[in-house]
Amino acid sequence: MGTANQIEQELMSYISDHKIRNTHSHHLPEQAMVDFDLDKLINNTYLQWQQVTPGTTAESRTAYLEKTRYKSYFVWLQKAIGELYGISEPITAQNWNQISDQIRKAHQNPDFYMDVLKNKCKYQKVIVDTYWNPGSDNGRPELFTPAFRLDLFFLGYKKGLRNHDGVSLEENFGELPDNLQDYVEWVRKWIIQKKSEGCVALKIAMAYERSLHFEKVTREQAERVFRLQESDITQEDIRCFQDYLFWKICEIAAEVSLPLQCHTGMGQVIDTNILQLNNVIKNNPETKFVLLHCGFPWVDDLFSIVDGYPNLYPDLTWLPILSYTASKRVMHQLIEMSQIDKICWGCDTWTVEESYGSLLAFRFSLCSVLREKIEDGYLSVNNAKDIIDKILFDNAGKIYV
Predict the structure, then answer these.
(1) Which Gene3D superfamilies match (predicted)?
(2) Which of 73, 195, 207, 295 is the residue whose CA sits 20 to 30 A from 266?
(3) Beta partners for residue 94, in sequence order
């Protein structure tokens, strides 16, 4: 066995040259990024979630950088910008406009978008959740395969509703059925249609809207929303409708053999931990539940059930760019506790720059974990390469068939 540095170099070289099946993203269509600059790029990354913006002056940008420079999102985005645009110095208020010009010029090249994703990132396939246009492949079926996001259907208890992204159920899928039985069949029809159009997974991100505790309610409880005047519908009525629908979607997912990707952890953060889904996972053994983000920050929930359900699949999506410290801990324990052929990774980003940054964070975390396990005598170098093969490529090919 070589030195720690030699092992790390060998592993990083192996990871960096490896083709990847990226299991979760929100990549914008390339035409949406034609006029990107540094400000627009930041506004389409996770940095826009924080309560501070860069502004347009040297003073405001300096203040912004002082607040964000050490945040994980910024660190990995800056590393990606550095590699993609050949910039060796950190982003500053003084070079901000110069970097913006480089980004703008690059995105005006029609080949830049796909070159980064296919050649720099080495993505062979990317599962994309275009929540603004559910089920789209961004017009690039050679790279993108859709996950069909179903959150809009949970708004079917009332006409005219929009979700937190401003997207309308009716504008995307037409007139709503007026009774529960027809509504469930309508949802089933759309799922079957989207599968025929190339969708390889279903996606639920209701943790941004509500608890992940979906109870097994009766049909009578769920259909109350269709009998009541809109002004008489209560939160309990809405909950029962949504709970019932979620269980039905789990059944349909099994019927049509589509994995169900579930956003867990971060969101509205009240009861969005993985154990809220325990009863659903247990009672739908034929449904493949892909637990995106591993329930971060409540990752111990995952470890409590990861070895107990054959239909549970942990996905490291988003986690390395959120916190490489947390992602390393999760990877260490998943290698020890989960079936290695169940684990996948996705970038969970909108732009090519942040996607590459997310990949850099993932490579760094995985390489570090595997090196430590080799040093501890837990794995051999060949074992580590086998794990890399599975997580980066092989597993997704078996889960999303």
Answers:
(1) Metal-dependent hydrolases
(2) 195
(3) none
